[in-house]
Design goal:
This protein is α+β, with helices and mostly antiparallel strands. The protein has ten helices and four strands; from the N terminus they run H-H-H-H-H-H-H-E-E-H-H-E-E-H.
Length: 198
């Protein structure tokens, strides 16, 4: 959370104010460079449910981020999950919501999308600019396509190729040498070949 923008920090201050606490008391790692000692008693408050929900759904906060925000240890966050089902469920649903948003964004990036924009023109001889609404097409991103397909269609798009060597009727492989000598691989030999081929 230390890398948040000033706008995000302002929103955090608003969230803290909504909960009736000073943000400098909640987020010492952002506001005050010297960290204070952690509180050993779990300072859980019911208002934390909504704060945690908003942090996870809007900012993609992790458990570690929540611990820093509430100025507790990660172990305390895990204890809250166990002791407070409403907190646990709010965080789980909010994280699912954030993950779904990222998945939708990846999908849109993979297939391309349209962005509604405005172009501003100043016609020759005019002192008044003209604003024209436009639509711009953002083309598909090859990397997003590959990432999507490798995860959603693993069998067809993964990098690894499985190679199986079998003889006639799925039996051992016969290796014939032009001089007439014949070697037959045993099952142990086949396993060694499979191990070499990966």
């Amino acid at each position: 959370m230390a890398d948040w923008t000033p706008e995000e920090l302002a929103e955090l201050e608003a969230l803290a104010e909504d909960a009736g606490v000073d943000v400098r008391d909640i987020v010492p790692s952002i506001v005050i460079p010297v960290r204070r000692a952690r509180i050993t008693v779990s300072p859980y408050q019911p208002e934390y449910v909504d704060l945690a929900r908003r942090l996870c759904s809007q900012f993609g906060a992790t458990d570690q981020d929540l611990a820093e925000f509430f100025s507790v240890s990660i172990k305390t966050i895990y204890n809250w999950y166990v002791k407070h089902a409403d907190f646990r469920e709010a965080v789980r649903l909010a994280k699912d919501f954030a993950d779904d948003r990222v998945e939708q964004s990846l999908y849109r990036r993979a297939i391309g999308y349209t962005v509604e924009t405005e172009k501003i023109f100043l016609p020759r001889g005019s002192k008044v600019p003209v604003v024209v609404p436009t639509s711009e097409q953002v083309g598909p991103d090859t990397t997003a396509c590959i990432f999507w397909l490798k995860n959603r269609r693993r069998a067809e798009w993964r990098d690894r190729v499985d190679t199986h060597i079998n003889g006639k009727d799925a039996g051992p492989v016969d290796l014939s040498v032009s001089g007439g000598a014949v070697a037959v691989l045993t099952e142990a030999d086949m396993e060694a070949v499979r191990a070499l081929l990966g």
